[in-house]
């Protein structure tokens, strides 16, 4: 039975990833900061009779990362770094950037995914699929940036893309594949109500893209339609 670890699994895309993979018979290690308050995730886990395991994890907490890695002494086919933050859209314009919010955004969106990959590299290397997926955004693309602004979010996701490329190069000798995935413009708390895709549509496409990943894709910035986004 294949397995996947998903961060930020308590809502939105993370919750739907959990639902769809569990429905396909995968073992899902669903991680969130406050499991006791994750009512939708708890209900979902109850419906899958042990296929979904819920684990407490603040991805910025080194002690929790290491404790979970030690606890889950099993192969993990896909590590999906889904958890992330926007940084708050109210202070991302030129001249209005908030330094502490910027630091927090970089901690969540760049450093935490890197440290998750470091903590779980042996788990993924021991699996069949050997995939590390990092949720990024088309807003990280410098070639595609025609509107400016969003300094905190754009820079953090561009940093994550750089991390993905370096990890792809460093882990190739272990046959690991590392990819950066854009989920599309999705109707979530972060994406807003005007998004082009429902959460279910986005996750279906993300899963399709992951199922097609080969060694040649490692280090790619993959759009929701499977094409490559320019850096």
Could you characterize the architecture of this molecule?
- This protein is of the alpha/beta class.
- The protein has one domain: NAD(P)-binding Rossmann-like Domain (Rossmann fold, 3-Layer(aba) Sandwich), CATH 3.40.50.720.
- Helices cover 40% and strands 13% of the residues.
- The protein is built from six helices and seven strands.
- Strands 3-2-1-4-5-6-7 form a seven-stranded parallel beta sheet, sandwiched between helices.
- Helix 6 links the parallel strand 6 and strand 7.
- Helix 1 crosses helix 6 and helix 4 packs parallel to helix 5.
- The termini are far apart.
- The mean pLDDT is 96.
Count of extended strands: 7
Order of helices and strands: EHEHEHEHEHEHE
Helix proportion range: 25-40%
Q: CATH class, anyone?
A: Alpha Beta
Low-confidence stretches: none
CATH 2nd-level architecture? 3-Layer(aba) Sandwich
> What gyration radius follows from the Cα positions, in whole Å?
17 Å
Mean pLDDT: 96
How many alpha or pi helices? Answer: 6
Largest sheet strand order: 3-2-1-4-5-6-7
Q: What would CATH call the homologous superfamily?
A: NAD(P)-binding Rossmann-like Domain
Total domain modules:
1
Q: What is the CATH third-level topology name?
A: Rossmann fold
> Distance between the terminal alpha carbons, to the nearest Å?
35 Å
Task: Write down the overall geometry.
Answer: globular
Q: Which sheet architecture does the biggest sheet show?
A: 7 strands, parallel
């Amino acid at each position: 039975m294949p397995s996947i670890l998903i961060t930020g699994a308590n809502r939105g895309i993370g919750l739907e990833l959990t639902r769809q993979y569990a429905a396909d018979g995968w073992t899902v290690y669903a991680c969130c900061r406050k499991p006791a308050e994750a009512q939708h995730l708890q209900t979902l886990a109850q419906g899958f009779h042990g296929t979904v395991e819920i684990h407490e994890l603040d991805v910025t907490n080194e002690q929790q990362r290491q404790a979970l890695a030690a606890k889950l002494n099993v192969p993990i086919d896909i590590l999906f770094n889904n958890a992330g933050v926007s940084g708050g859209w109210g202070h991302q314009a030129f001249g209005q950037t908030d330094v502490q919010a910027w630091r927090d955004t970089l901690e969540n969106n760049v450093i935490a995914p890197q440290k998750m990959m470091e903590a779980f590299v042996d788990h993924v290397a021991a699996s069949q699929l050997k995939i590390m997926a990092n949720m990024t955004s088309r807003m990280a693309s410098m070639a595609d940036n025609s509107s400016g602004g969003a300094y905190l979010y754009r820079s953090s996701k561009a940093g994550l893309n750089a991390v993905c490329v370096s990890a792809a190069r460093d882990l190739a000798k272990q046959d690991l594949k590392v990819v950066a995935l854009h989920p599309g413009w999705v109707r979530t708390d972060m994406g807003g109500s005007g998004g082009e895709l429902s959460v279910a549509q986005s996750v279906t496409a993300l899963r399709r893209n992951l199922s097609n990943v080969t060694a040649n894709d490692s280090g790619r910035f993959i759009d929701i339609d499977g094409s490559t986004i320019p850096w």
